[in-house]
Write a structure and sequence with these properties.
By secondary structure, this protein is mostly helical. It contains 11 helices and 2 strands; from the N terminus they run ααααααβααααβα. It starts with 5 loop residues before the first helix and ends in an 8-residue tail after the last helix.
Length: 333
């Protein structure tokens, strides 16, 4: 039996043997994957907010045996199928990041695993997205679909950050109580995002306008959940301000202080959007912009946490030659 060509047996190794990207290229590839993970949030929100969630009423096909459907299916079909096709663009961006990380020298196992983790989250979320269609936009399924995208953003941010770091053990730049306050802030932000998905699940945008299906909604007044969401938002703002003052008080490095200031600015902008959309009864455009803001808040929170430590290229006391001979660590912290 003839042997397969090398490129077919191990395409990533084949590319890595012939191309070594510079660090800037690798970082741009990681950034492209992060940007696309945010773009898919915006377009996914547009699908629901334009009532196009069942523009393709089946999955994995669009309609019956047709993979793409037909023009006669209308604008909602066009919006839904466009979002499905955009998933392939996201896969291409993640694939570029995987290739760039694999081809970079020296090889970094932990970073490579992070890059691949993005692919598996994308694949799993694509299947879950199909489940949202098969369950006729069950609001709990739709909520988890968004939260899986938040998980993708998390891994993408970690990958992007790790590209610019070394592989030595992480070293804290602030004391343990400050880091714990940062973790409390991250936990409150996670709860804020989860409650936000419940607002949309109870709100006036079920995702379909055809009238062919009886769509389930979360059986609670959306204004009540929105008020709870606003309360958590103020908790996050308060924790952010507290963290900024603590960082100033302990004379922390400029990096963590700057990241907290950036988070505060994003929170203020998101708050304006949130209150305007509430008092204008959730117009679709503002809701989608609010989803974009939620993504930016989570990215900013992650950057705050990551700014509280550093990872040098080599362990303290290790020479470059010794470090090069040692296996690269795969710790994500």
């Amino acid at each position: 039996m003839p042997k397969l060509p090398e490129i077919a047996r191990n395409p990533l190794a084949f590319i890595a043997a012939r191309w070594t990207p510079d660090p800037v290229t690798v970082r741009r590839a990681a950034l492209a994957a992060l940007v696309m993970s945010v773009v898919i949030v915006i377009t996914g929100g547009a699908v629901r907010l334009t009532a196009s969630g069942l523009g393709c009423p089946t999955w994995p096909t669009c309609n019956g045996d047709s993979l793409l459907g037909t023009r006669e299916m209308g604008i909602h079909h066009a919006i839904e199928i466009s979002n499905r096709m955009l998933t392939y663009v996201l896969c291409a961006a993640v694939g570029w990041a995987i290739i760039a990380v694999r081809a970079a020298e020296p090889r970094r196992t932990g970073l490579y695993r992070l890059a691949w983790a993005q692919f598996w989250v994308v694949a799993g979320n694509a299947v879950w997205g199909g489940l949202t269609v098969l369950t006729k936009l069950n609001p709990y399924v739709v909520s988890l679909h968004f939260l899986l995208t938040v998980a993708l953003i998390t891994v993408a941010v970690l990958t992007w950050q790790r590209v610019a770091e070394g592989d030595a053990s992480p070293r804290p730049l602030v004391g343990k109580p400050v880091r714990q306050l940062g973790l409390v802030l991250a936990g409150a932000s996670a709860v804020l995002i989860v409650v936000g998905t419940l607002v949309t699940g109870a709100g006036p945008h079920p995702g379909d306008s055809s009238g062919k299906y009886k769509l389930q909604r979360i059986e609670v007044d959306w204004r009540t959940i929105a008020q709870l969401h606003a309360d958590f938002a103020w908790v996050v703002v308060g924790l952010t301000v507290a963290l900024w003052f603590v960082l100033r008080a302990v004379d922390a490095p400029r990096g963590p202080q700057r990241r907290v200031a950036e988070l505060f600015a994003v929170l203020m902008a998101q708050g304006v959007i949130g209150y305007v959309q509430y008092f204008t009864h959730l117009p679709a455009a503002l809701v989608d912009l609010h989803m974009f803001g939620a993504s930016l808040i989570w990215i900013a929170v992650l950057r705050v946490l990551l700014a509280m430590r550093e990872r040098p290229e080599f362990e303290p006391g290790a020479s470059p030659a010794t470090a090069a001979a040692e296996p690269r660590e795969s710790v994500l912290g």
